[in-house]
Amino acid sequence: MNISFIKIIPVIKVILVSIIVLYHSMLFWNDSWLNVLNGTDDFKIIRYLTRYLGVFHVYTFTFLSGYLFAYQKNNNSYKFFSEFVKNKIKRLIIPYISVSCLWLIPFNIHYLQWTNKDIIEKVVLCVWPSQLWYCIMLFNVFLISYFLYSKLKYYPIINTIILIAIYFLGLIGRAYIKNYFTIWTICEHLLFFWLGYCFYFYSNLFNINKKEKLLFIFILHVFTFIVYDILYYKVSFEFVYYTIELICRIIGVLNIVSIAYYYKSILYKYFQSEKLQIIIKNTFGIYLFHQQLIYVFINEFYWISNPWLQILVNLIFSFILSLGISALFNKFKLTRFMIGTK
């Protein structure tokens, strides 16, 4: 069965959102994200695993968004800018506002002791509104891409070089100016959106027909990650570190895309089941609601001393409950509008 790549993108998104929930479920034990309780840095496997997943998960989402954007532009879905903006406001800005007000802010006040200043800076000015940063970032990337990419697609190499420079500008800028309206995060993700955009037009050159090629890409990714991790604490090699980090991210995205591309027929067939279709329809909702649920489980199950058991509890319960909340929201017109679903 010959399945086009576009048909398995919803399946890839399910896999990616599962990875994100797992990643956030582990971050507490990495002692680098939640400060609700005292984490520990003694669990090296967890720390390495979270760092490995963090290298590619959201960047692959952005890559897929670029691919879908190219597909829709090429099929005349975005003829008028006003319609395009209206669509993206419904899909990204409305969920940002509604979920922030009704979900994120109340939970973060209670569990992270957010003050009014935190709300203004992190949510209103979008410096770091927990998981919802991705909505603001992607909205802005879409707007920029609408004007730029249709003109620059004929110069892929030059444009890629320019976007790599912008990527590093984002890394430098965040060291001096706060990430207002995710400006520096936008700089980082424009490159991956562009790579997804290019993949749509040049996917005929992407020929993964043997498992040996998949294994090579995976080994290459693991190797670059090991180098990246070694350089993590080497401040004197900062430029080299960020360069390796970028390479590791690109190869990590390529690794996920390659696996999905190779097994696309199997993935498409497997995810046709009714239960998995429910998850596909609620992928975005799972992303919107899962993180604050993890706060709850960390606090309520603080007595679980085994980190792997705590991670499993976080993963299972936050995934299932966020899926349930999303499914409930999708039952009514108003609540569907609030979380950006059709």
Could you please describe the fold and organization of this structure?
With 342 residues, the chain is mainly alpha-helical. It has one domain. 77% of the residues lie in helices and 0% in strands. It has 14 helices and no strands. Helix 1 (5-30) packs antiparallel against helix 2, helix 3 (81-111) packs antiparallel against helix 5 and helix 3 runs parallel beside helix 12. The chain is globular. The two termini are 30 Å apart.
> How many alpha or pi helices?
14
Low-confidence stretches: none
Query: What order do the helices and strands follow?
Result: HHHHHHHHHHHHHH
Query: Roughly how many Å apart are the termini?
Result: 30 Å
Sequence-ordered SSE layout with sheet pairings:
Elements: H1 5-30, H2 44-74, H3 81-111, H4 116-124, H5 133-152, H6 156-173, H7 183-202, H8 211-230, H9 238-262, H10 264-270, H11 274-281, H12 283-300, H13 307-329, H14 333-338
Helix pairs in contact: 1-2, 1-10, 1-12, 1-13, 2-5, 2-7, 2-9, 3-5, 3-12, 5-7, 6-7, 8-9, 12-13
Summarize this, please?
With 342 residues, this protein is mainly α. Helix 2 crosses helix 5, helix 2 (44-74) crosses helix 9 (238-262) and helix 6 (156-173) packs antiparallel against helix 7 (183-202). It is built from 14 helices and no strands.
Keywords:
342 residues, mainly alpha, 77% helix
